[in-house]
Amino acid sequence: MDIDAWVWWLIGAVGLGIPLVLTAMPEFGMFAVGAVAAAVVAALGGGIVAQVLVFVVVSVALIAVVRPIAARHRADRPRIATGIDALKGRQAVVLERVDGNGGRIKLAGEIWSARAYDGEQSFEPGRQVDVVDIDGATAVVM
Fold first, then answer.
1. Strands, E, within 1-142: which ranges?
2. Cβ-based neighbours of 119, under 8 Å, separated by 6 or more
3. Which tens digit of pLDDT belongs to each residue from 102-113?
């Protein structure tokens, strides 16, 4: 059974595509594209030296060009606040008097225990307060 070189390159491309899917490392995808380019060279009758050279040049070129672009896009993504980080900076309504010892507020549709950021301050029911921190299950307000 004599298999042409271009088939081996395609098998190699598929083999490089498997870790790409399993590990989500884009470098494997770039090597897979290099293997496909080498398969094209082999199908057109290029020698083994030309095939390996095309594989190396295409793979290195993709890594040199695509990786910095991908890294720049990854760094420029806006940070989305979730969980308690999303609650910081929001406004709440005082339900029970809040002072340095405790109280209750309505925050994001839920009732939370709360305490004043400044222990000397107190907030009466119905007043709007700002959440400055979440300490365990207690909102720190001012």
1. 91-96, 104-107, 110-116, 128-135, 138-141
2. 99, 100
3. 999 999 899 999
CB-based contact 56:9 (threshold 8 Å)? no
Instruction: List Cβ neighbours of 39 (8 Å cut-off, separation of 6 or more).
Output: 5, 6, 7, 9, 10, 13
- What the block records as the tokens of 44 is 């057109």
Q: Is 99 exposed, middle or buried (0-12, 13-18, 19+ CB in 10 A)?
A: middle
**CA 19, 21, 27, 32 torsion: positive or negative?**
positive
Give the position of tokens 């720190």: 140
- pTM of the model as a whole: 0.54
From 67, 69, 68, 36, select the one nearest 54 (Cα to Cα). Answer: 36
